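User: What would this chain look like folded?
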Amino acid sequence: MHIIIDGYNLIRQSDSLRRLERFSLEEGRSGLIQRVAGYKKLKGHKMTVVFDGWMDGSAREERLREDGVSIVYSRRGETADEVIKRMAMAGRGREVIVATSDRDVADSVVRAGGVVISSPEFEARMMEAEMMVMINGGEPCEEDDYDIPESGTRKKGTSKRKPKRERQSQRRLSKL
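Assistant: Here's the prediction, encoded as structure tokens.
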């Protein structure tokens, strides 16, 4: 699974990362990358964070790697949104999840066969994973580790099955 994160979108949607960004843009970026790197260590997914570099960036797209996380700065004249759309199209047929709250990007990703999760929801899942590790004493846990009692009532009536695309999206998101 490849998770692509709209960097500045997530920073500006998160209270804690926005506070870091007030000190400097670099502080906000490093805070995000540290959190994503911690999540990557827990889950093992391929992670890419995309930032805008189109205003005063390099003429070429810059790609870096820090703590196992790929970092992409868009080239001058291109937005991070365009890079994310391109990456989603290139990942067609594979499991691609994009964390963004930008509606235009989300629509393009869904058309490319990817799954979209909003920035606040992705941040909540990262925090939940961190909390579970703390609770379990440093060991990541699986959803199957919890014993959920089943109710004794049986539902009546016709079952309503969700559309195939929605079921696939839910299956991919459950892996986060």
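The chain has one domain: 2-142+165-174. If you want, I can go into more detail on any region.
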